[in-house]
């Protein structure tokens, strides 16, 4: 990391604190920004122009070509399927079955996936698999829905499916161009990182990601067909949030608190993106140390602030979600995780 990048990370403000008793035990620094479709910041904190890898927080942007190409319609993908395509799912039975079904509609099996396999995010499901003497498959990968969508697009357009995760494959080139269009940032394939599921991940300013989601929910700032594709994906996620995440996941709790009014999506290493369609606003945030406990609290706090002047009751609901009580193994309350930005 360059010296100037280290300085920027250190200079970001403390946005989340973790207490034990009456003392602050840990502090999480980071940056966040809320913008409208023009890219104008409604409010921000920290360095929102520093490039960050968005990881899975931008799966909606990565799924735009699935809609635009006509593949989603050809294979009859409805709200549940499209929500799964945008998911970092927990590997529960419904997620695994639906990912397999999407592949089947394109005439493929799980062997076509190139995301790799890992134990499900759901500890309950992982223990069940282990008890039964089984191993997880690629369908349990939290990104199997997204990859199934990539493969549907390749099949629909008559492209080679092998190697679809490569940065120069047509599937990933379409994703890169769509993300460039929506964020306004130049994304150089030669400077891409590799995500956990093997596809390229491109670093860009937080402000660009927030603007992209504001554009999708406001219907401004891009070609009508692209905006319509994004709206369809976001509406699918809001309608079927469980398929985008899983049981007792923060994304589900935040979207179910305001059905059809809020979209949020987590990403690895402390990233969150989201949008409020009725206000035409998007947001993006990054916790410098990558802590999920901090990014979840900050995402809820951001929503609380967005709604503060528009819906006081909903603002209070999100304020409560931004505050998590910590308990020990005896269930004794020992402290809290709380956003302080």
Rg computed from alpha carbons, rounded to a whole number of angstroms: 19 Å
Count of discrete alpha- or pi-helical segments spanning 4 or more residues:
15
CATH architecture: 3-Layer(aba) Sandwich
- Secondary structure class reads alpha+beta
The biggest sheet amounts to: 8 strands, antiparallel
Number of DSSP strands? Answer: 12
Measured as a percent range, the helix fraction is 40-55%
Q: Which shape, going by the Cα principal axes?
A: globular
Round the mean pLDDT to the nearest integer and report it: 95
CA(first)-CA(last) distance? 26 Å
CATH class: Alpha Beta
Total discrete domains: 1
CATH domain topology: Beta-lactamase
The topology string of helices and strands comes to: HEEEEHHHHHHHHEEEHHHHEEEHHEE
Report low-confidence residues grouped into runs of 5 or more.
Answer: 1-9
Proportion of residues in β-strands: 15-25%
């Amino acid at each position: 990391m360059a010296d100037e990048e280290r300085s920027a990370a250190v200079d970001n403000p403390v946005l989340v604190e973790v207490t034990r008793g009456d003392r602050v035990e840990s502090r999480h620094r980071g940056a966040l920004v809320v913008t409208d479709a023009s890219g104008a910041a409604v409010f921000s904190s920290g360095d929102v122009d520093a490039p960050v890898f968005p990881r899975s927080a931008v799966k909606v942007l990565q799924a735009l070509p699935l809609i635009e190409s006509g593949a989603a319609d050809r294979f009859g993908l409805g709200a549940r399927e499209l929500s799964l395509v945008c998911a970092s799912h927990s590997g529960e039975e419904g997620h695994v079955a639906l990912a397999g079904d999407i592949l089947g509609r394109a005439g493929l099996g799980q062997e076509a996936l190139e995301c790799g396999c890992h134990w499900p995010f759901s500890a309950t499901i992982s223990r069940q698999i282990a008890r039964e003497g089984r191993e997880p498959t690629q369908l349990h990968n939290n990104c199997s829905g997204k990859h199934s969508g990539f493969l549907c697009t390749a099949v629909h357009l008559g492209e080679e499916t092998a190697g679809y995760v490569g940065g120069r494959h047509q599937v990933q080139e379409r994703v890169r161009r769509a993300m460039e269009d929506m964020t306004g940032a130049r994304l150089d394939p030669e400077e891409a990182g590799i995500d956990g599921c093997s596809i390229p991940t491109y670093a860009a300013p937080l402000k660009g990601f927030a603007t992209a989601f504001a554009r999708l929910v406001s219907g401004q700032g891009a070609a009508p067909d692209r905006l319509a594709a994004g709206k369809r994906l976001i509406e699918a996620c809001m309608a079927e949030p469980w398929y985008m995440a899983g049981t007792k996941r923060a994304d589900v709790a935040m979207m179910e608190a305001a059905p059809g009014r809020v979209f949020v999506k987590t990403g690895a290493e402390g990233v969150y993106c989201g949008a409020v369609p009725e206000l035409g606003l998007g947001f993006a945030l990054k916790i410098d140390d990558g802590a999920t406990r901090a990014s979840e609290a900050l995402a809820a706090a951001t929503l609380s602030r967005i709604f503060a002047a528009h819906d006081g009751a909903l603002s209070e609901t999100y304020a409560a979600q931004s505050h998590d009580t910590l308990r020990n193994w005896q269930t004794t309350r020992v402290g809290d995780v709380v956003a302080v930005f």
